[in-house]
Structures are given as structure tokens and as C-alpha cells.
Amino acid sequence: MRRYPDLRFRPTLRTLSDEQVQQIHLATLEVLERTGVQITHPRAKEILAGAGARVQGDRVRIPSWMVEDALRKAPHRVVLGTRGGQRTVLLEGDKVWFGPSLDCIDYLDPMTEDRRPFTSADCAVTARVADALPNYHWVMTIGMAADVPADIADRVIAKQVLTNCEKPFVFCCKDVNSTRDIYEMAIAIAGSEEAFLRAPFIIHYSEPVSPLLHYDPAIEKLMYCAEKGIPLVYYPAPMAGGTAPATFAGVIVQGSAESLSGLVLAQLVRPGAPFIYGAFTTIMDMSTTIFSYGAPEMSLMAAAMAQLAQFYGLPFFGTAGCTDAKFPDPQAAAEAAFSCLSSALAGANLVHDSGWLDHGSVASPAYMVLVNEVLYMVRQFLQGLAVNEETLAVDIIDKVGPGGHYLNEEHTLRHFREVWYSELFDRAMLDQWKQKGGKRFEERLREATQKAMAHTPAPLPAEVLRELDRMATSWK
User: Fold this and answer.
1) 56 φ, ψ to 5°?
2) Minimal CA–CA distance to 360: which of 384, 396, 324?
3) For the whole prediction, is pTM greater than 0.90?
4) What is the average per-residue pLDDT within 210-231?
5) Are 243 and 15 in contact (CB under 8 A)?
6) Residues paired with 115 in a beta bridge
7) Does CATH place domain 1-476 in 3.20.20.480?
8) pLDDT, tens digit (0-9, with 9 covering 90-100), for 398-429
9) Partners of 37 in the β-ladder
């Protein structure tokens, strides 16, 4: 007879009580009904007015029943796939999936630490690195390549990622024409619209402008994604004290209202359109005026919004693994570890920006590798403790008894591999470390980054590559 049942508990983090969640929700509804949002797009205003919103000029006020109706219609889970059609990222409940933002304005060379403008060739490198690192389950691209014309840079970057990485791909772009071109590349890879919808592997990232403004290109992209069934991240960036109230609850209320107003329109365009809720809620650092990527308040508000997403039954787009540091240094590691652990414990679903330096302006393959190592620790922690007959080890404790040791026990042989051993962080004694070459962390990180950069993903079929090249000739 078993004396101890199998028990396992996943560590979690709550930053809001149930009563606080309810208050924030009601305040969000009040903002949408009382203040509303600004929309200038004629068709969007017509759709919203026809469904029951109060439209006066460019001000659109959305009654609470429309928000609640949209929440009922929106999918509670969104499944993303690889470009090969495998359904790999399940956005549901409190499951957590981390991904890097691949490109920025600048690129930090991991071998020389030279900082220079980011190019399309650099995107190929960062995409391969992301494909190689196992704790990144999806990838992203934000920014433009400096070596190609600005009007087509978003599509050039998307083509690089689709060619050099097999994982689900969150993209951003300047207008609906770019969205359409990137979608057509995805259809060429999938083989058909039906195959794409079985496991969507492109996800569009767009954003309203805080406070409470939806500009026309964002609205057009939102409606196009809803019509085509492209999963959409609609993600404002309210900054406490700058573009949002200085109070953290106020930032969350405004950010939630901005994202939910997009949800309402998306569900009116196509009920059941896949929608990913969230907001990049952080502070304005009053001493530097930066939009901080490493502030603990950012992680606190992100965790609170993850709770709201679970309350709404919506997939959530989170932020972690980024830093205000300029290099992959101790500040960068500390800010990454703190934000990644708190986001994972809060159950944020699709967590982005892992591997970004200098408040979102520098892409660094070395920092991507460092954050990947942090995520090993986070995932080990999230497993929690298995408590059962075997793990409680009462019998083996009695067998060894006082003063003994467990090195020769079969029980030890069965379980010692459950411990995580890093290939990057060193636990050796000083003499052992010297015997292994005495490599400091920076050197070990450089070697691990070189290994990741040498990774080669499975190639696209030759006929698909030819079709993507043909499409590129028509971009204007």
C-alpha cells in the first residue's frame, strides 16, 4: 500500500488579489465608456458605431456590454506552429513561452563588442541563434535593416527570419501592404491558407499609441489580420508619468483599455479572430527620461496584467529578459533573471524581448545566449517539487541511517540527473577551474555564442525560396 500520494505544485506568483483584479476591470470599462479612444479610420468608426459604440467625430466610446461580448467571442487559446506545420506553442492558461526580439536599431558584435547599425545580414545571424537556443520557443523582429531601402526593410527582415528560423515568428511592419506581403510569404511556405490556419506560424505585432489613440495604419493592420485569421498581438506601451498616469494601477487600467478596444474591433470584423492581449507597462525614468526595460516596476505591472489576462481568458503578451544595460554584464544578467522569473511565475504566455540591451535599442547574440541560460534555471524552478513515495525517500533515509552517505545507493543513481548542470556557468573549485583553462565568464559566453551562431536550420525547399525571391522583386 502506498503511504504517500503523488503530489506536484507549480510555483506561482500573484501580485493582485481577486478584489483588485475586479476593481481594475471595472475601472477599465469605465475608461472605455466615459473617455473612450480616438479613432480616425472611417471604416473602423462605421463598424463600431453600427455595433453600438457612441461615435462623436474621432472619439469612440465603447459600452461595457460590447467589451464583454468581445471577450465571449475571442478564442481563449491560440496555438502557434513552426513553418513546417508542427503545433508547438500553446497559448492557454498560465503556460509560458519565451522569445527574443531579433533586431533593433543597433547590433552588438559578440566577438569584438563593436556597436553599429543593424543590417539584414545581422538578422540572419540573430535568427539562426534564436533557432539554435532551446529555451526560445518563438522569435520576433522589431526594427529595420539599415542596409536596404526603408520602404521595404520590414519585408526584407521578415524574409530573413522565415529563411533562417523554423520557429513561430512574431513580426511587425509599417502598414497593411507590408502585412499582406508577409502573409503571402507565409502562405507560400505553408502551401495553402488552410494549411496555414491549422498551425499559424506568423503572428502580427501592432500597437495603439498611448494614451488611447488608434492611428490608421494600426487599425488597417488589425482589420486585415482579423479577416485572414492571422493571430494579432495588440500591445500599447503606456509609460508611467509620461504617456500614462504615474500610478501603477492607472498605467494598467489605461493599457488594458487600449488593448481591449482593439479586441472589440477585431471581434466585430471577424468573431473568433485570434487576439493576444497585453501592454508594455513600464516607467519613465525621470532622471534619464528613458522608457525603462529593466525596472522592477515593469515586471510588477507585467505580472499584474498576466493575472488580468487569465481573468479575461485571453492569451497574454509579456515582457522579460531585457535590460537597460549597454553590454551583457552583471546588470544585464540581474535584470534578466528578475524579470524572467517573475514573468514565468505569473504565467505570462508569450514573453518577448528576451535578449535586448540598452532599453530596446541593441540586438546582441551574446545576451540572447546569456538569457537562454537564465531560462534553464527558470524552467527548472517552475517544475516545482515532486512529492511521492519515491521522492520522500523515507525508506532510503532509514537504510543509510545516521552518519552514512548516499553515493552508492541505487536511489541516487535514479535521481541525480534531475539536477540542472549549466554549460555556461561554472561551479568548479578554483584549482579545477584553472586546470580547465581558467576561462572567465566573458570568454565562455563568447564561445557559447560562436557555437549558436554556427547553427544551420533546416532549409526551405528550393521552389519556396525561388517563390520568396520572386515576391521580393515586386516590393515597392
Assistant:
1) -130, 105
2) 324
3) yes
4) 98
5) no
6) 108
7) yes
8) 999 999 999 999 999 999 999 999 999 999 99
9) 60
CA distance 257 to 236: 10
Confidence grade of residue 157 (pLDDT, cut at 50, 70, 90): very high
Measuring CA to CA, which residue among 144, 140, 136 is closest to residue 101? 140
pLDDT in tens, 166-219: 999 999 999 999 999 999 999 999 999 999 999 999 999 999 999 999 999 999
Domain range annotation of the chain: 1-476
CA–CA gap between residue 258 and residue 60 (Å, rounded) = 12
Contacts of 79 (CB under 8 A, 6+ apart): 87, 89, 90, 91, 199, 200
Q: Do 172 and 66 touch, CB atoms closer than 8 A?
A: no
From CA 456, how far away is CA 453, in angstroms rounded? 8
- Rounded-to-integer distance, Cα 423 and Cα 124, Å: 25
Other C-beta atoms within 10 Å of 129: how many? 30
Angle between helices 216-228 and 42-51 (to 10 degrees): 60
Q: What is the pLDDT of residue 141?
A: 87
In terms of C-beta distances under 8 Å and separation of at least 24 residues, what long-range contacts does 179-183 make, across chains too? 179/204, 179/221, 179/224, 179/225, 179/230, 180/224, 181/155, 181/471, 181/475, 182/154, 182/155, 182/158, 183/224, 183/228, 183/230
Is the pLDDT assigned to residue 334 strictly greater than 90?
A: yes
- If you ran DSSP here, which 8-state letter would residue 277 be given? B
Residue 79 — φ and ψ, nearest 5°?
-110, 130
Three cell numbers written together for 367: 545576451
pLDDT band at 6 (very low <50, low <70, confident <90, very high): confident
Alpha carbon distance 70, 272 (integer Å)? 9
**For residue 234, pLDDT beyond 70:** yes
Residue 1 confidence (pLDDT) above 70:
no
Residue type, 54: R
Virtual CA dihedral for 141, 144, 146, 151, nearest 10 degrees? 140
Q: Compute the distance between CA of residue 135 and CA of residue 374 in angstroms, rounded to an integer.
A: 9
Return the DSSP state at 47: H
Of 312, 318, 364, 314, which is closest to residue 341 (Cα–Cα)?
318
One-letter amino acid at 256 equals S
Note whether 131 and 167 are within 8 A (CB): yes
- The answer to whether the CB of 174 falls within 8 A of the CB of 134 is no
Distance CA 22, CA 28 (A): 10
